[in-house]
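Example record

One chain of 138 residues, shown exactly as stored in the release files.
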Amino acid sequence: MSHETPRYHVYPTDCDVFGHVNHATMITLLEHARWALLETVTTYRELRRADVWTVVRHVDVSYTAQSVPGDELVIRSGLVRIGRTSYAIRQTVTNASTGTLHADATITFVCLDRASRPVPVPDAWRSIFPLWDDPVSA
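Predicted structure tokens for this chain:
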């Protein structure tokens, strides 16, 4: 089952000159949600000591509504696929009040060793991330 973050309140300082959350800020909110997910099972210190790290390989984001000051956003996150050296997390951003979908993203990561060479996804990681709970729309 996917993981839902606490609500994110959109402030005017989160917005660009046009008055809405821009792409860079949305990417940051998605990253914050992924960290919130990871912090349910590990700590930053533990991750830094690990022999395997991850880096973003690809980001695919579709925007379907504007996020503006005053909005309360909820981000759902879950694992949609796992390969030999990579995995993908899907995240949706919805308005907490209206249920309107604001963004739908899939972020693909690759696992690297300390020398930045691709390595297999550790077996233990296959159970760290909750599975996306709507496989039909994954």
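Notes: The chain has one domain: 3-132.
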